[in-house]
Amino acid sequence: MIAELRAMGIELMVSIWPNVDYRSENFAEMRDLGHLIRTERGMRVSMDFQGNTLHFDATKAAAREYVWAKVKKNYYDKGIRVFWLDEAEPEYTAYDFDNYRYHLGSDLAVGNIYPFMYARTFHDGMSTAGQEKVINLIRCAWAGSQRYGALVWSGDIHSSWKSLRNQVVAGLNMGIAGIPWWTTDIGGFHGGDPNDPAFRELFTRWFEYGTFCPVMRLHGDREPRQPQVGTSGGASCRSGAPNEIWSYGEEIYGICVKHIELRESLRPRISEAMRAAHEAGTPPMRPLFFDYPEDPEAWAVEDEYLFCDLLVAPVLAPSLRSRMVYLPEGRWKNLYDGSLLEGGQTVECAAPMDRIPVFERVRS
Question: Which of 46, 146, 187, 291 is most exposed, with the fewest beta carbons within 10 Å of its own?
Protein backbone atom coordinates (compact mmCIF):
# COMPACT_ATOMS: atom_id res chain seq x y z
CA MET A 1 0.00 0.00 0.00
CA ILE A 2 2.78 2.43 0.89
CA ALA A 3 4.47 1.89 -2.46
CA GLU A 4 1.18 2.15 -4.32
CA LEU A 5 0.40 5.48 -2.68
CA ARG A 6 3.89 6.78 -3.44
CA ALA A 7 3.41 5.88 -7.11
CA MET A 8 0.32 8.12 -7.01
CA GLY A 9 2.35 11.00 -5.58
CA ILE A 10 1.05 10.51 -2.05
CA GLU A 11 3.44 10.17 0.89
CA LEU A 12 1.88 8.23 3.77
CA MET A 13 2.36 9.73 7.24
CA VAL A 14 1.89 7.61 10.38
CA SER A 15 0.68 9.10 13.66
CA ILE A 16 2.73 8.16 16.74
CA TRP A 17 1.85 8.90 20.36
CA PRO A 18 4.44 8.65 23.18
CA ASN A 19 1.97 6.78 25.40
CA VAL A 20 2.53 3.12 26.24
CA ASP A 21 -0.59 1.26 27.35
CA TYR A 22 -0.42 -1.13 30.28
CA ARG A 23 -1.83 -3.75 27.89
CA SER A 24 0.94 -3.25 25.33
CA GLU A 25 3.21 -6.21 24.60
CA ASN A 26 6.14 -3.83 25.24
CA PHE A 27 4.94 -2.33 28.51
CA ALA A 28 6.54 -4.73 31.00
CA GLU A 29 9.89 -4.70 29.25
CA MET A 30 9.95 -0.91 28.98
CA ARG A 31 8.98 -0.57 32.63
CA ASP A 32 11.67 -2.99 33.78
CA LEU A 33 14.31 -1.24 31.64
CA GLY A 34 13.37 2.16 33.11
CA HIS A 35 12.16 3.54 29.78
CA LEU A 36 8.87 4.95 31.13
CA ILE A 37 8.31 8.10 33.14
CA ARG A 38 7.71 7.73 36.89
CA THR A 39 5.35 9.26 39.41
CA GLU A 40 6.31 10.48 42.86
CA ARG A 41 3.03 9.36 44.42
CA GLY A 42 -0.15 7.48 43.64
CA MET A 43 -0.71 5.07 40.79
CA ARG A 44 1.97 5.14 38.10
CA VAL A 45 -0.26 6.49 35.31
CA SER A 46 0.17 9.62 33.24
CA MET A 47 -2.92 9.33 31.03
CA ASP A 48 -6.09 7.26 31.13
CA PHE A 49 -7.41 8.05 27.62
CA GLN A 50 -8.33 4.73 25.99
CA GLY A 51 -6.70 2.94 28.94
CA ASN A 52 -4.01 3.48 31.58
CA THR A 53 -0.76 4.62 29.96
CA LEU A 54 2.69 5.97 30.69
CA HIS A 55 4.80 8.10 28.35
CA PHE A 56 8.13 6.76 27.27
CA ASP A 57 10.98 8.75 28.81
CA ALA A 58 12.28 10.78 25.87
CA THR A 59 14.96 12.37 28.07
CA LYS A 60 16.73 8.98 28.32
CA ALA A 61 18.92 8.01 25.35
CA ALA A 62 18.32 4.28 25.77
CA ALA A 63 14.54 4.83 25.78
CA ARG A 64 14.75 6.90 22.59
CA GLU A 65 16.78 4.14 20.93
CA TYR A 66 14.31 1.47 22.09
CA VAL A 67 11.31 3.35 20.71
CA TRP A 68 13.01 4.10 17.41
CA ALA A 69 13.95 0.43 16.99
CA LYS A 70 10.26 -0.49 17.25
CA VAL A 71 9.22 2.29 14.87
CA LYS A 72 11.93 1.38 12.38
CA LYS A 73 10.94 -2.28 12.30
CA ASN A 74 7.21 -1.68 11.99
CA TYR A 75 7.05 1.49 9.88
CA TYR A 76 10.33 2.88 8.57
CA ASP A 77 11.57 -0.40 7.08
CA LYS A 78 8.22 -0.67 5.30
CA GLY A 79 8.70 2.69 3.59
CA ILE A 80 7.30 5.33 5.95
CA ARG A 81 9.48 8.46 5.77
CA VAL A 82 7.47 11.06 7.68
CA PHE A 83 5.76 10.87 11.08
CA TRP A 84 3.00 12.71 12.92
CA LEU A 85 4.23 13.05 16.52
CA ASP A 86 1.17 13.74 18.66
CA GLU A 87 0.87 14.41 22.41
CA ALA A 88 4.35 15.91 22.42
CA GLU A 89 3.90 18.24 25.40
CA PRO A 90 3.28 15.53 26.71
CA GLU A 91 -0.39 15.60 27.67
CA TYR A 92 -1.47 14.34 31.09
CA THR A 93 -4.84 13.36 32.52
CA ALA A 94 -3.94 15.41 35.62
CA TYR A 95 -1.43 18.24 35.27
CA ASP A 96 0.32 17.65 38.59
CA PHE A 97 3.73 18.52 37.23
CA ASP A 98 5.47 17.91 40.55
CA ASN A 99 4.30 14.28 40.40
CA TYR A 100 6.14 13.28 37.22
CA ARG A 101 9.82 12.40 37.05
CA TYR A 102 12.00 11.87 34.00
CA HIS A 103 15.47 10.40 33.67
CA LEU A 104 16.94 13.93 33.69
CA GLY A 105 14.90 15.13 36.68
CA SER A 106 11.54 16.36 37.88
CA ASP A 107 8.99 17.57 35.35
CA LEU A 108 9.11 20.91 37.15
CA ALA A 109 12.80 21.23 36.26
CA VAL A 110 13.07 19.61 32.82
CA GLY A 111 9.51 19.14 31.54
CA ASN A 112 9.78 21.67 28.72
CA ILE A 113 12.56 19.66 27.09
CA TYR A 114 10.26 16.68 26.46
CA PRO A 115 9.03 17.73 22.97
CA PHE A 116 12.61 18.59 22.03
CA MET A 117 13.74 15.07 22.93
CA TYR A 118 10.64 13.50 21.38
CA ALA A 119 11.54 15.11 18.03
CA ARG A 120 15.14 14.02 18.51
CA THR A 121 14.04 10.38 18.91
CA PHE A 122 12.86 10.29 15.31
CA HIS A 123 15.40 12.66 13.81
CA ASP A 124 18.35 10.69 15.17
CA GLY A 125 16.86 7.38 14.10
CA MET A 126 15.96 8.55 10.61
CA SER A 127 19.34 10.22 10.11
CA THR A 128 21.18 7.10 11.27
CA ALA A 129 19.09 5.13 8.78
CA GLY A 130 20.51 7.34 6.02
CA GLN A 131 17.69 9.84 5.49
CA GLU A 132 19.22 13.23 4.64
CA LYS A 133 16.15 15.45 4.88
CA VAL A 134 14.11 14.82 8.01
CA ILE A 135 10.93 16.68 8.87
CA ASN A 136 8.13 15.45 11.13
CA LEU A 137 4.84 17.04 12.18
CA ILE A 138 4.82 17.54 15.96
CA ARG A 139 2.35 18.98 18.47
CA CYS A 140 4.73 21.01 20.58
CA ALA A 141 8.25 22.39 20.54
CA TRP A 142 10.93 23.96 22.69
CA ALA A 143 13.92 26.16 21.99
CA GLY A 144 16.11 24.36 19.46
CA SER A 145 13.47 21.90 18.24
CA GLN A 146 14.11 23.06 14.68
CA ARG A 147 17.46 21.25 14.68
CA TYR A 148 15.53 17.98 14.83
CA GLY A 149 13.25 18.62 11.86
CA ALA A 150 10.24 19.81 13.88
CA LEU A 151 7.25 20.96 11.84
CA VAL A 152 5.12 22.34 14.65
CA TRP A 153 1.36 22.71 14.56
CA SER A 154 -0.54 24.69 17.14
CA GLY A 155 -2.43 21.74 18.58
CA ASP A 156 -6.07 20.87 19.14
CA ILE A 157 -7.43 24.41 19.05
CA HIS A 158 -11.05 25.54 19.13
CA SER A 159 -13.05 26.31 16.00
CA SER A 160 -13.71 29.98 16.76
CA TRP A 161 -12.82 33.44 15.53
CA LYS A 162 -10.87 34.05 18.73
CA SER A 163 -8.79 30.97 18.03
CA LEU A 164 -8.17 32.09 14.44
CA ARG A 165 -6.90 35.45 15.72
CA ASN A 166 -4.61 33.60 18.13
CA GLN A 167 -3.06 31.66 15.24
CA VAL A 168 -1.67 34.81 13.66
CA VAL A 169 0.15 35.66 16.88
CA ALA A 170 1.25 32.05 17.47
CA GLY A 171 2.72 31.65 13.99
CA LEU A 172 4.66 34.91 14.17
CA ASN A 173 6.07 34.11 17.61
CA MET A 174 7.09 30.64 16.45
CA GLY A 175 9.04 32.14 13.57
CA ILE A 176 10.74 34.73 15.76
CA ALA A 177 11.69 31.89 18.12
CA GLY A 178 13.67 30.33 15.28
CA ILE A 179 11.22 27.61 14.22
CA PRO A 180 10.27 28.27 10.57
CA TRP A 181 8.19 25.14 9.95
CA TRP A 182 4.79 25.93 11.45
CA THR A 183 1.14 25.22 10.67
CA THR A 184 -2.36 25.29 12.12
CA ASP A 185 -5.49 23.18 11.84
CA ILE A 186 -7.48 25.08 9.19
CA GLY A 187 -10.93 25.60 10.69
CA GLY A 188 -9.68 24.70 14.16
CA PHE A 189 -9.77 21.22 15.63
CA HIS A 190 -12.57 21.14 18.19
CA GLY A 191 -16.04 21.66 16.74
CA GLY A 192 -17.62 23.23 13.70
CA ASP A 193 -20.47 21.88 11.59
CA PRO A 194 -19.71 21.98 7.83
CA ASN A 195 -23.44 22.58 7.19
CA ASP A 196 -23.58 25.64 9.46
CA PRO A 197 -23.33 28.89 7.39
CA ALA A 198 -21.57 30.65 10.27
CA PHE A 199 -18.90 27.97 10.48
CA ARG A 200 -18.55 27.93 6.71
CA GLU A 201 -17.54 31.58 6.83
CA LEU A 202 -14.99 30.92 9.59
CA PHE A 203 -13.64 27.93 7.69
CA THR A 204 -13.28 29.97 4.51
CA ARG A 205 -11.40 32.80 6.18
CA TRP A 206 -9.16 30.28 7.95
CA PHE A 207 -8.50 28.50 4.64
CA GLU A 208 -7.50 31.82 3.05
CA TYR A 209 -5.17 32.57 5.96
CA GLY A 210 -3.74 29.04 5.83
CA THR A 211 -2.79 29.57 2.19
CA PHE A 212 -0.15 32.01 3.43
CA CYS A 213 1.36 29.92 6.23
CA PRO A 214 4.63 27.95 5.99
CA VAL A 215 2.58 24.74 5.70
CA MET A 216 -1.04 24.67 4.50
CA ARG A 217 -2.95 21.94 6.30
CA LEU A 218 -6.63 21.06 6.76
CA HIS A 219 -7.52 19.05 9.86
CA GLY A 220 -10.33 18.99 12.42
CA ASP A 221 -12.83 16.97 14.44
CA ARG A 222 -16.09 18.18 12.92
CA GLU A 223 -19.63 17.86 14.22
CA PRO A 224 -21.99 16.14 14.54
CA ARG A 225 -19.85 13.17 15.51
CA GLN A 226 -20.32 10.04 13.41
CA PRO A 227 -20.76 6.40 14.53
CA GLN A 228 -17.58 4.54 15.33
CA VAL A 229 -16.18 2.62 12.37
CA GLY A 230 -14.74 -0.77 13.29
CA THR A 231 -13.73 -2.12 16.67
CA SER A 232 -9.95 -2.35 16.35
CA GLY A 233 -6.94 -0.66 14.85
CA GLY A 234 -7.53 2.77 16.35
CA ALA A 235 -9.09 4.79 19.13
CA SER A 236 -12.41 3.43 20.36
CA CYS A 237 -14.37 6.61 19.84
CA ARG A 238 -16.77 8.21 17.39
CA SER A 239 -15.41 9.84 14.28
CA GLY A 240 -15.76 13.46 13.27
CA ALA A 241 -18.06 14.65 10.48
CA PRO A 242 -16.75 15.07 6.90
CA ASN A 243 -14.05 17.75 6.57
CA GLU A 244 -12.93 17.58 2.95
CA ILE A 245 -13.11 20.83 0.98
CA TRP A 246 -16.17 19.54 -0.89
CA SER A 247 -17.99 19.11 2.44
CA TYR A 248 -18.75 22.85 2.65
CA GLY A 249 -20.94 23.42 -0.40
CA GLU A 250 -20.19 24.44 -3.97
CA GLU A 251 -19.37 28.09 -3.25
CA ILE A 252 -16.83 27.32 -0.52
CA TYR A 253 -15.43 24.44 -2.56
CA GLY A 254 -14.70 26.84 -5.41
CA ILE A 255 -12.94 29.25 -3.07
CA CYS A 256 -10.83 26.42 -1.65
CA VAL A 257 -9.82 25.19 -5.11
CA LYS A 258 -8.82 28.73 -6.07
CA HIS A 259 -6.58 29.02 -3.02
CA ILE A 260 -5.04 25.58 -3.47
CA GLU A 261 -4.07 26.62 -7.00
CA LEU A 262 -2.72 29.92 -5.65
CA ARG A 263 -0.69 28.00 -3.08
CA GLU A 264 0.78 25.82 -5.84
CA SER A 265 1.80 28.94 -7.76
CA LEU A 266 3.69 30.16 -4.67
CA ARG A 267 5.90 27.07 -4.47
CA PRO A 268 9.06 28.79 -5.85
CA ARG A 269 8.69 31.69 -3.39
CA ILE A 270 8.08 29.37 -0.46
CA SER A 271 11.08 27.21 -1.37
CA GLU A 272 13.27 30.30 -1.51
CA ALA A 273 11.91 31.53 1.83
CA MET A 274 12.60 28.16 3.45
CA ARG A 275 16.12 28.21 2.06
CA ALA A 276 16.63 31.66 3.63
CA ALA A 277 15.27 30.33 6.92
CA HIS A 278 17.75 27.44 6.82
CA GLU A 279 20.75 29.54 5.85
CA ALA A 280 20.11 32.84 7.64
CA GLY A 281 17.33 32.16 10.15
CA THR A 282 14.90 34.53 8.43
CA PRO A 283 11.34 33.46 9.30
CA PRO A 284 9.20 32.82 6.21
CA MET A 285 6.25 34.20 8.20
CA ARG A 286 7.21 37.30 10.16
CA PRO A 287 5.85 40.51 11.73
CA LEU A 288 6.19 43.77 9.81
CA PHE A 289 8.85 45.12 12.17
CA PHE A 290 11.24 42.35 11.12
CA ASP A 291 11.66 43.95 7.68
CA TYR A 292 10.86 47.53 8.76
CA PRO A 293 12.52 48.01 12.18
CA GLU A 294 12.71 51.81 11.78
CA ASP A 295 8.96 52.14 11.20
CA PRO A 296 7.10 52.74 14.51
CA GLU A 297 3.78 51.76 12.92
CA ALA A 298 5.19 48.40 11.87
CA TRP A 299 5.83 47.56 15.53
CA ALA A 300 2.19 48.29 16.41
CA VAL A 301 0.56 46.10 13.74
CA GLU A 302 -0.51 42.69 15.10
CA ASP A 303 -3.12 41.51 12.60
CA GLU A 304 -1.09 41.40 9.38
CA TYR A 305 2.29 39.94 8.51
CA LEU A 306 4.85 39.20 5.82
CA PHE A 307 4.94 35.79 4.15
CA CYS A 308 7.83 35.33 1.74
CA ASP A 309 7.72 38.68 -0.10
CA LEU A 310 3.98 39.16 0.38
CA LEU A 311 2.08 41.28 2.88
CA VAL A 312 -0.93 39.33 4.17
CA ALA A 313 -3.91 40.84 6.01
CA PRO A 314 -6.25 38.00 7.09
CA VAL A 315 -9.90 38.60 7.89
CA LEU A 316 -10.28 37.75 11.55
CA ALA A 317 -13.93 38.56 12.37
CA PRO A 318 -17.28 37.52 10.90
CA SER A 319 -19.27 39.47 8.28
CA LEU A 320 -16.36 41.66 7.19
CA ARG A 321 -16.04 42.39 3.47
CA SER A 322 -13.27 44.97 3.82
CA ARG A 323 -10.56 45.82 6.33
CA MET A 324 -7.93 48.45 7.04
CA VAL A 325 -4.39 47.51 6.01
CA TYR A 326 -1.16 49.28 6.88
CA LEU A 327 1.39 49.33 4.05
CA PRO A 328 4.99 50.10 5.02
CA GLU A 329 7.17 52.34 2.87
CA GLY A 330 7.65 51.51 -0.81
CA ARG A 331 5.20 50.48 -3.50
CA TRP A 332 2.77 47.60 -3.16
CA LYS A 333 0.91 45.66 -5.85
CA ASN A 334 -2.40 43.97 -5.11
CA LEU A 335 -1.84 40.26 -5.72
CA TYR A 336 -5.30 39.80 -7.22
CA ASP A 337 -5.96 42.81 -9.46
CA GLY A 338 -2.46 44.22 -9.97
CA SER A 339 -3.34 47.72 -8.72
CA LEU A 340 -0.47 49.73 -7.19
CA LEU A 341 -0.48 51.61 -3.90
CA GLU A 342 2.12 53.76 -2.21
CA GLY A 343 3.33 52.63 1.20
CA GLY A 344 3.56 54.57 4.42
CA GLN A 345 -0.22 54.71 4.79
CA THR A 346 -3.23 52.79 6.04
CA VAL A 347 -5.81 51.98 3.39
CA GLU A 348 -9.21 50.29 3.31
CA CYS A 349 -9.03 47.14 1.20
CA ALA A 350 -11.82 45.01 -0.22
CA ALA A 351 -12.12 41.55 1.31
CA PRO A 352 -14.96 39.68 -0.39
CA MET A 353 -15.60 36.11 0.72
CA ASP A 354 -13.28 34.68 -1.92
CA ARG A 355 -10.10 36.50 -0.89
CA ILE A 356 -8.22 38.44 1.77
CA PRO A 357 -5.99 41.48 1.15
CA VAL A 358 -2.55 40.38 -0.08
CA PHE A 359 0.10 42.69 -1.52
CA GLU A 360 3.43 42.09 -3.22
CA ARG A 361 6.38 44.43 -2.71
CA VAL A 362 7.40 46.15 -5.93
CA ARG A 363 11.15 45.96 -6.33
CA SER A 364 12.75 48.99 -7.97
Answer: 291
